[in-house]
């Protein structure tokens, strides 16, 4: 694959000492005197690089195949392609996207167990061989349409501890797996190992789910080997957290996965191990800035007990901003996301906080971003920032009611760019510790990103229930 130049990526270099957060400020200042205060994103591609270094350090045996569905921005895909990642594509369009930037078919897994026949044929024509399945009908479709397919059996896992449960829709049980393997033998379909492509479900809170899934995978590998298949690939799926505001941190998960891999798929087994991380790579890279376009003050009825009230409880505030659940905040509906804004203007130390709700711009009552939070009083024209907005946001947003999607301003620091080019040309030649001396998530020496959210941040809005 050729080395990309910075113009192809369409990002701006961060000047020395500047962070992505500074660019947010700069963009806000640029429009401060105008009425055109559209919502916008700043996305730090250096943050994606940092995540990759962290991945390599935490899961050295696992090659990431980025789940394109999570955020199909060309700049993100090019960044990950430069770093040598593979790609999990769910459709013909996603395959086209990654192939158009020069990714070879071996670096693609068509990881959708339910595929349209014409798209299976497209994958065949493009040389994409790795694909997942979990049913007999899919096996028969592949047998007819893609004679060179190398199938990965997707097994159901216990996702009862996950926020986004996927085993409801996908995956074969262990019993069905045997039947499917036998049927594949009859049909002459090549299952290159079970290569169980499982996904324990995004937002998982129990790391043992991963080790159980890996042990189940071993079972299915053994079944496949018994039937004469040459098992060579294990796919541990996605669901790794992309930000720090989660119950189960990335390294807590990998601390469970690595021993399970060593136990069930030791390095000398020759099995290639891949994963399909999506949110892990992109969530924290994106910050969304939205502008308050309307506001409603709802006065409370006065009661006797309110006499000694300091005034903060006499009204609640409703803010209407220029992006909502039909746009970037579709993650609230589809990805079970809970978001809270970071105030753009730092509140004064003695400033009163009010009970507030935040709404999107459409005419639908469903378009609510935050039901309840505490904030100082803001005005129309003020900004709110939402961090960790890179996953399942822009990818599934619509222009319902005619509201356009926010512009995305991509940035990267020069040291991050240089390191990325070095990796693209020579691979990861330095030990990762030298590049990132500190314990993650503390930023790397070549820091180019915004500060990671911290509970002590004075401008962070409090959830009313926290
Ligand atoms: C097959 C498959 N792989 C990977 C992913 C990525 O999940 P995440 O973004 O939680 O890592 C998904 C998400 O739904 C998926 O369905």
UniProtKB/TrEMBL annotation:
Keywords: Decarboxylase, Lyase, Phosphoprotein, Polyamine biosynthesis, Pyridoxal phosphate. GO terms for cellular component: cytoplasm. One of its GO terms (molecular function) is ornithine decarboxylase activity. Gene3D superfamilies: Alanine racemase, Lyase, Ornithine Decarboxylase, Chain A, domain 1. Its cofactor is pyridoxal 5'-phosphate. It catalyses: L-ornithine + H(+) = putrescine + CO2. The active site is at residue 363. Pfam families: Orn_Arg_deC_N (PF02784), Orn_DAP_Arg_deC (PF00278). Residues 40-390 form the Orn/DAP/Arg decarboxylase 2 C-terminal domain. Pathway: Amine and polyamine biosynthesis; putrescine biosynthesis via L-ornithine pathway; putrescine from L-ornithine: step 1/1. Residues 45-283 form the Orn/DAP/Arg decarboxylase 2 N-terminal domain. Its EC number is 4.1.1.17. GO terms for biological process: eye photoreceptor cell development; putrescine biosynthetic process from arginine, via ornithine. Belongs to the Orn/Lys/Arg decarboxylase class-II family. This is ornithine decarboxylase. It comes from Lepisosteus oculatus (Spotted gar). The lineage of its organism: Eukaryota, Metazoa, Chordata, Craniata, Vertebrata.
